[in-house]
């Protein structure tokens, strides 16, 4: 196990009706609130109304920033910063999924930064003081509700890059599983694939002595695999939605990644797909992951794939390690496919024209050549992408 | 899954050499430090010297409270309070295992309480403001390094009772696995039994819909079962000590208990054994748990015991549920025994003379009749204790 510093201080109010905690959670930080949300879904499902009602009742002064994009853009961050400065905002309230929360984090840091907040994606040390952030989660996927990371998109340069820092960790997050009842089928599936991806990226690490983290990751993966079909078949299953929602947070709050080693590979690759084609992140990951697994399966890595197959999918350890490993990869592929996820790039509108360019960019924007689970060059990434056809 | 509020804000500095963070972690809270520790082991193994050196170098003003007992006593808490007031202490530094940390928590709260701090065990609402606490953990067992709970003993009344509150959660804990290299064999085994007990008490809950928590608990249990024999055979195995140490913290920081239901039974029973006979907590638990399991195994609970047997011990689900359940309980018993734990009460110096009295006290001091996994009366507790002979 590598040395690590772990801190996941977000106060989680979990369960149906926990929005009642909102006024108290916000008031700790001030009265002037920037309310950030995405499209109209929070208005359709009543969450916006419930929050606004509580804010009005408790005399908060609210400024709104609506229309955050699914891959939130730097322009929206700049708009948010302006609103914070003009309105002397004390605290940001994000209502939405990972995109809204990520955008809010970038705004929170941009409030105290004079330069272009895109700089944060180039140099994490620029993320300093930030406005406090409270979130109301409406989708189980990114884990952004309990960590300090964010991903921002710059369409002008076709870049989608990460940023983050401990000051961006939400102070509190309200997790009400009923708020995810209306998440459409494909978004539910994509969200679960995203949760799986975080666990898988942490799980396949160069060091294998952080057994506890791996056992916990396996436990969360088994939960996601068990409950995603339930949520898809019965969108208002509280048990399924609750287990998926809490899985989302615990998959990426440091619990399964601390003490492990190396950088994430599939996210580096997927971010290029989203940057060039604006596809849904979780779907891009589901397409890439099994092909990446096949590409990096070798004598050195096979034992980790055997553990994955046996412990997550209950595949029998027959002694033929490569066969067991491949059965595990196949089980994962079939799991994603069974959730209704389109499992090839053409199905999401991506042709072969930019594969080489995206492969190069993935290498340029990440450390996967040096620090990936298995070191990859641009030609490896291109091969992985070609296998997605 | 039941509604819950989860917050585990302790900053964890994990790994060899992380004591280097100590001055910075303390300085956030002030310069006047109450240094709390137990017997001489922290002096023998060099941790005391390392800490004192760093404190002197960084000009902290240190007051010492040595000699905290294995079951820390209310008199020591009172002594600590006096030292805090006399020396205008800003922050408490606990170096030790659960007893030292628990005692420090009670002192931290007592500092701001005019009455008898034993009151905290009777009414948790009395725990308010508290001195900040930083810990250096030297034993993997209680999880006190990452939660707000404490257990204090009153030998005069033969009571060992819990107290706690969010203000008592350590601000930071330094977890250096090498600090547990010198923990004696029997204490290592008792510590692992204690970790298992926390997981088991949370796992066997009346509600069975918090699947994620159960899968995580199974993962931690498997880790403890895998690494305890390694640590016993090879006390300086960093991998084993590291996995056990982090298991200790994660078993009882809210992760496996939030969203579950009911009160803990085996701890209520064991606290009476320790209160009357001052035995090692983890050993008392290892003796009681399998007998409690046998007592509460029935038509309603069998499916949970099957999950335990299959998921933790890899016992085959044959369809004969009671046989599978009993095989799981037997596997747990044999696991504890294989660690060298004395598995009967006579072996730890307890005869039958006070069984009925201890059973009555367990009922009086807890809510297990109303809120236990299976409701127990005094006669049930007595029967469980009789089976420990």
UniProtKB/TrEMBL annotation, chains A, B:
Any one GO molecular function term: metal ion binding
Domain Alcohol dehydrogenase iron-type/glycerol dehydrogenase GldA: 9-177
InterPro entries noted in UniProt: ADH_Fe/GldA, ADH_Fe_C, ADH_Fe_CS, BDH-like
Superkingdom field: Bacteria
GO annotation, cellular component aspect: cytosol
Domain Fe-containing alcohol dehydrogenase-like C-terminal: 188-387
Entry keywords, A to Z: Oxidoreductase
CDD domains (UniProt xref): BDH
Coiled coil: none
Listed PROSITE patterns: ADH_IRON_1, ADH_IRON_2
Record keyword Oxidoreductase present: yes
Official protein name in the record: NADH-dependent alcohol dehydrogenase
UniProt organism field: Vagococcus salmoninarum
């Amino acid at each position: 196990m590598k040395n690590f510093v772990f801190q996941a201080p977000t106060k989680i109010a979990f369960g149906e009706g926990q929005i009642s905690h909102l006024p108290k959670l916000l008031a700790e930080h001030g009265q002037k609130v920037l309310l950030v949300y995405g499209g109209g879904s929070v208005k359709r499902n009543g969450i916006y109304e419930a929050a606004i009602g509580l804010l009005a009742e408790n005399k908060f002064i609210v400024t709104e920033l609506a229309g955050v994009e699914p891959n939130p853009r730097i322009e929206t961050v700049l708009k948010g910063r302006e609103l914070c400065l003009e309105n002397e905002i004390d605290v940001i309230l994000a209502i939405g999924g990972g995109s809204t929360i990520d955008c809010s984090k970038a705004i929170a840091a941009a409030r105290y930064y004079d330069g272009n907040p895109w700089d944060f994606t180039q140099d994490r040390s620029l993320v300093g003081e930030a406005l406090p952030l409270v979130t109301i989660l409406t989708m189980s996927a990114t884990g952004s509700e309990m960590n300090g990371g964010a991903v921002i998109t710059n369409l002008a340069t076709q870049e989608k890059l990460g940023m983050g820092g401990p000051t961006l960790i939400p102070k509190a997050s309200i997790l009400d599983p009923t708020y995810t009842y209306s998440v459409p089928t494909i978004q539910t599936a994509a969200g679960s694939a995203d949760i799986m991806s975080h666990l898988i990226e942490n799980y396949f690490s160069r060091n294998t002595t952080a057994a506890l983290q791996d056992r916990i990751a396996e436990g969360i993966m088994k939960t996601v695999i068990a409950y995603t079909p339930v949520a898809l078949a019965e969108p208002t299953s509280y048990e399924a939605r609750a287990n998926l929602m809490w899985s989302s947070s615990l998959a990426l709050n440091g619990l399964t990644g601390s003490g492990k080693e190396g950088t994430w590979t599939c996210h580096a690759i997927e971010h290029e797909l989203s940057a060039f084609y604006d596809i849904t992140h979780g779907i891009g990951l589901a397409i890439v992951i099994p092909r990446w697994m096949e590409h990096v399966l070798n004598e050195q890595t096979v034992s980790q794939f055997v553990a994955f197959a046996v412990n997550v999918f209950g595949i029998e350890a027959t002694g033929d390690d490569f066969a067991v490993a491949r059965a595990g990869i196949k089980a994962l592929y079939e799991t994603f496919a069974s959730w209704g996820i389109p499992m090839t790039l053409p199905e999401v509108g991506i042709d072969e024209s930019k594969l080489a360019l995206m492969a190069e960019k993935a290498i340029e924007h990440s450390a996967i050549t040096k620090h990936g689970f298995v070191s990859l060059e641009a030609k490896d990434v291109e091969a992985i992408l070609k296998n997605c056809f």
